[in-house]
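Fill in residues.
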């Protein structure tokens, strides 16, 4: 029976195209064109201009709520156009995301998880999950779970001077 279940899961993964393995350091992550819940469109060329911090999160995640405080501080600390920052919400709908962003006066950009992004990222260990991409789209750092404030602020080292 266990063997049948394993085969069924494998077939489902092959049919749906969901990446069975998580993206890791050294892998490519193509973000493509994304439109934020704030209405901003980011083209593929945008990601090639500088390093990009990608955070996968959810409004219901307590660790994400703590980490988003640090993320907003990082956004405010860095001059514009030195580091790309994009967050990907895994919430089912955009309504709680918009309410959360307004309630906390957060300004970091948020896109909703799509099947294409989910396929590109693969299986996650949980949220929050942070990836740092170089301008060529290669994952050069990956962290999951709550990052302490000093580790999170260390992401500023990837900012283009």
């Amino acid at each position: 029976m266990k063997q049948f279940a394993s085969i069924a899961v494998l077939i489902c993964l092959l049919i749906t195209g969901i990446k069975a393995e998580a993206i890791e350091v050294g892998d490519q992550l193509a973000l493509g064109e994304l439109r934020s819940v704030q209405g901003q469109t980011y083209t593929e060329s945008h990601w090639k201009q500088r390093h990009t911090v990608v955070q996968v999160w959810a409004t219901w995640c307590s660790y994400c709520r703590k980490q988003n405080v640090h993320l907003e501080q990082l956004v405010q600390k860095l001059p514009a156009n030195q580091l790309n920052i994009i967050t990907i919400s895994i919430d089912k709908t955009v309504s709680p995301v918009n309410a959360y962003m307004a309630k906390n006066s957060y300004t970091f950009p948020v896109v909703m998880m799509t099947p294409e992004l989910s396929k590109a990222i693969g299986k996650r260990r949980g949220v929050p999950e942070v990836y740092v991409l170089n301008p060529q789209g290669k994952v050069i750092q990956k962290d999951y779970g709550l990052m302490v404030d000093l580790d999170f602020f260390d992401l500023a080292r990837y900012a283009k001077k």
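Residues 4-19 have pLDDT under 50 and may be disordered.
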